[in-house]
Amino acid sequence: MRTGCLFRPAHLQPTSPALRFLRACVSPWLGAAMMEGLDDGPDFLSEEDRGLRAINVDLQSDAALQVDISDALSERDKVKFTVHTKSSLPNFKQNEFSVVRQHEEFIWLHDSFVENEDYAGYIIPPAPPRPDFDASREKLQKLGEGEGSMTKEEFTKMKQELEAEYLAIFKKTVAMHEVFLCRVAAHPILRKDLNFHVFLEYNQDLSVRGKNKKEKLEDFFKNMVKSADGVIVSGVKDVDDFFEHERTFLLEYHNRVKDASAKSDRMTRSHKSAADDYNRIGSSLYALGTQDSTDICKFFLKVSELFDKTRKIEARVSADEDLKLSDLLKYYLRESQAAKDLLYRRSRSLVDYENANKALDKARAKNKDVLQAETSQQVCCQKFEKISESAKQELIDFKTRRVAAFRKNLVELAELELKHAKGNLQLLQSCLAVLNGDT
Amino acid sequence: MAPRIESKSMSAPVIFDRSRDEIEEEANGDVFDIEIGVSDPEKVGDGMNAYMAYRVTTKTSLSMFNKNEFSVKRRFSDFLGLHSKLATKYLHVGYIVPPAPEKSIVGMTKVKVGKEDSSSTEFVEKRRAALERYLQRTVKHPTLLQDPDLRQFLESSELPRAVNTQALSGAGILRMVNKAADAVNKMTIKMNESDAWFEEKQQQFENLDQQLRKLHASVEALVCHRKELSANTAAFAKSAAMLGNSEDHTALSRALSQLAEVEEKIDQLHQEQAFADFYVFSELLSDYIRLIAAVKGVFDHRMKCWQKWDDAQITLQKKREAEAKMMLANKPDKIQQAKNEIREWEAKVQQGERDFEQISKTIRKEVGRFEKERVKDFKTVIIKYLESLVQTQQQLIKYWEAFLPEAKAIA
Questions:
Q1: By CB atoms within 10 Å of each CB, which of A42, B65, B178, B182 scores lowest?
Q2: Is the distance from CB of B35 to CB of B60 less than 8 angstroms?
Q3: Which domain holds residue B208?
């Protein structure tokens, strides 16, 4: 099912990372026999590429700094991303270079932003989710084991299905990691971060070891305290109307996006199950068609063919809904959390400021350490005002991005649904014409 | 899920709509101008003695009936009673008698107890549709149509209550048939099949049975998943509406509410499609799985018939040997007895041969008719099913076309 593609990102050729990855890592547990027909799979590259990277619109890809993931390799327990940078900035030694990074190193970069006090006033682009192929791998393995118990057609069909699934997950994870980097690169302040530059350029392993148990526990408590704090701090009504509105809005919005994201997921999965049933129905009809002694066998074969084709379309519907709706909602779930975190940081700094005020008053009353208290109060004040100013802009940008992303994805969703429905309709009608002509 | 009986295209189908031409093309030139409808399920009585009464309406121009259009009230056990009478008369001589719908204790109890929920409504509708299909199939059978019991069932306002329907339910008959089949299989004497046609056909029906069961299982899974999809779509629609409410950008908020509305409509579509999946496709398959069991039963009866003939031949042989012995032993009174017995058994052998030939001939004709019906049935139903899919897609297109400008209007 090749669809015309208006443009194809230069680095994603037919012999793209996706197919290379499949060859490289699928074979160890599937065996050479399964490798045939790998290239005959439906061409997902053209359409999905455009969609996958467009969760966030308006990524000004200016010449100063362009980042993308040009290749990716999935190995048994990790994914290796090739991060490719093109830059005219003087900070880098070369104009174009690539490094290989793993998921943990993305997390390290994200966490370093979060922990950096200077960035307290910005929405930190949410970290990409961990690549998770376990379910898909299991299915592929089971298929390999059960090869003997099904017909060749069934086996080939299922294999293609599972491979397409694996490929889709793989491409999604590549897209998520890429979007994270692009958001950072597009941010006027974050793009200048030193750690970011190291991440992009340093061509050795960053040796970001996995957190040991103690550190994990510390993190856990930090998060607990933070959420407890969050409850206390958000009880304070904000003087500033803008932030008061934003806080109310974000709290509610975040919860609803969470719910919508979960429900959308379930809906997409049901859709896929129904599509899989079409597959089995098609196979059964085929068997009936080949075995029947009456003239109905041609009939069955035609209908079997129809189910096979319509099933592919239904699977695409499910995949597109997943991409345009579920992924969109998931992304804004994470972004709205990042925005909430920003508000939390601002509130914290407000509390610090108010405490510093109280300390100053106390110091003046006792006439002790007044200068110290004054300096401290000024620092807090400046910090608070700096955060407030940048936070305001960040939240306005967030809204703009959100609206643009939703618009783009909803339009594309509607267009794809229409396209698939029309395709389905045409299939059904032409099949009916043939069947009615026969009888 | 309440079945949408009112929606014109989606009522559980009268699948035997035929054009004038089709009717005239019937084999033997017989005109089967008769149409049966089962409708208006009505609860009669209370508690555990309650039952559902169905209206059975016959429309016909056949002269054997007193009127052109008439209806009676029947209950489920009446249908079972009819089937048992027909089965007793015709199964063992090779006629494929359509099986009656299955009994269901659980389903019926809910209805009796008065549980007015969607699952009881669904159960009653499923049963009504099954009874209708059962009668339609039965009247289509030229021999059964002539049967007085069938006419009495359709015409007379009062019907003696069928007794022992427990044993004679569709499942009961099938059990009988299956037991007979087992008995035949356990026979060590292999039937001397002189006609390869029968062996071939039996194998074909065996294969068909397996394939239909597999297909039926897949279609049932589809029905289940589509119902799930419907529920999940409805949940998502609500969630999207909530999200739209909390979105503070006006145009986006409106678009999200529109999306919620679209998804709600799509949920309805899924429900209707699941209805079609079930009543049009799935029920056809389960009907045929049971029909094929009846076909297999008929083949087994033929085997039993052959067995009887073969036994008679063996007995005749024994009698002849006995006579020869008597001749040698010179016992004149016993000789006469032996000669009588020989005559008796010669007659039995002849009868056995005649019966066997008759049942073989009947089965050949029946199978031919059955296959023709099967082909027509499947073609009609599958086309109807595909048409339901077409409708769904057309609706989807309408909904998304209406939504697209709303999405584009987000500024």
A1: B182
A2: yes
A3: 187-410
The verdict on B245 and B120 lying in the same domain is no
Tens digits of residue pLDDT in B321-353: 888 888 888 777 888 888 888 999 999 999 999
Q: Are A264 and B236 in contact (CB under 8 A)?
A: yes
Task: Tell me how far the alpha carbon of residue B255 is from its chain's centroid.
Answer: 48
Q: Which helix (H) or strand (E) holds A142?
A: helix A134-145
| B383 interaction partners in chain A (CB closer than 8 Å) | 432, 435-436, 439
The pLDDT-based confidence of B39 (bands split at 50, 70, 90) is very high
Same domain, B105 and B221: no
If asked whether residues B277 and B331 sit together in one domain, one would say yes
Query: Distance (Å) from the C-alpha of residue A357 to the closest C-alpha of chain B?
Result: 35
Q: Which residue has the tokens 């376990």?
A: A134
Based on the fold, state whether residues B56 and B159 are members of the same structural domain. yes
A411 in Cβ contact with A144 (< 8 Å)? no
B327 touches chain A (CB under 8 A): no
Residue B19 belongs to some domain of the structure: no
Cβ pair B211:A431 closer than 8 A: no
The CATH number of the domain covering residues in A53-131+174-199: 3.30.1520.10
pLDDT score, position A55: 47
Structural domains counted in chain B: 2
How big is the A-B interface in CB pairs under 8 Å?
160
Q: Where do we find the tokens 């009717």?
A: B23
The greatest distance separating any two alpha carbons of chain A, rounded to the nearest whole angstrom, comes to 107
The 3-state secondary structure of A79-95, one letter per residue: EEEEEEEEECCCCCCCC
Q: Between A403, A410, A418, which is nearest B249 by CB?
A: A403
- B301 and B246: one domain? yes
Which residues of B, range 240-259, sit inside 8 Å of A by Cβ? 240, 242-243, 245-249, 251-252, 255-256, 259
**Segment A282-295, tens digit of pLDDT:** 989 998 988 887 78
CB-based contacts of A57, cutoff 8 Å, min separation 6: A401, A404, A405, A408
Among A254, A269, A284, the strongest candidate for a mutation testing the B interface, having the largest count of B CBs within 10 A, is A284
CA angle, corner A267, sides to B399 and B395, nearest 5? 20
Q: Domain A231-237+252-438, CATH 3.40.50.150 — does that match?
A: no
Measuring CA to CA, how many Å separate A183 from each of A60, A189, A327, A335, A398?
9, 11, 16, 11, 12
CA distance A314 to chain B (A): 11
Q: How far is A152 from chain B (nearest CA, A)?
A: 17
